[in-house]
Every structure is written in structure tokens, then in C-alpha cells.
Amino acid sequence: MADYAILLDGERVASMDSDDEVRSWLVKYRDDHVDDDPSAAHVQILERGALAWLTGGKLVDRELFL
């Protein structure tokens, strides 16, 4: 099972252990930023698997969590 790092403008702001946690965080972010970033364009989701210490992980499309 992968874990996730949430990046905002390239800076890590949160770590999550499941898809549901990422989904909840993203919904709250979009609600909080309805005026300045409603599509969460500044958010990147980095999936970190077993080899993340070596590869750094991979970016996944935030649309998967909406």
C-alpha cells in the first residue's frame, strides 16, 4: 500500500496513508480556497511506494481523488 505526500506549490504540507485521507484533505482544501484556487491547481499529490526513498515517488493526477 502506498502513502501520499501532499505538495502545495512544491512544498510538502501533509502526509496521508490512504486514498480516503487524500480525498478528504483535497475536498477541504477546495472548500477553503473556493475564491483563489477552486480547482486545486496548486496542489500536487505524490504517491510514495516501497522504493520512494530511492525514486522519490510519482506524481498522480488529483482528478483521481475528486
Shape: globular
Sheet-strand content, in percent, reads 25-35%
Mean pLDDT: 89
- Please outline the major beta sheet: 4 strands, antiparallel
Radius of gyration from the alpha-carbon trace, in angstroms: 12 Å
Give, in spatial order, the strands making up the sheet with the most strands: 2-1-3-4
Count of strand segments: 4
Task: Kindly describe this structure.
The protein is of the alpha+beta class and 66 residues long. The protein has a 4-stranded antiparallel sheet. The longest helix is centred in the middle third of the chain and has 14 residues. The radius of gyration is 12 Å and the shape is globular.
Summary keywords:
66 residues; alpha+beta; four-stranded antiparallel β-sheet; 2 helices
Question: How would you summarize what this structure contains?
Answer:
This protein is α+β, with helices and mostly antiparallel strands. 27% of the residues lie in helices and 32% in strands.
Topology (elements, then pairings):
Layout: E1 3-8, E2 11-16, H1 19-32, E3 43-48, H2 52-55, E4 58-60
Antiparallel strand pairs: 1-2, 1-3, 3-4
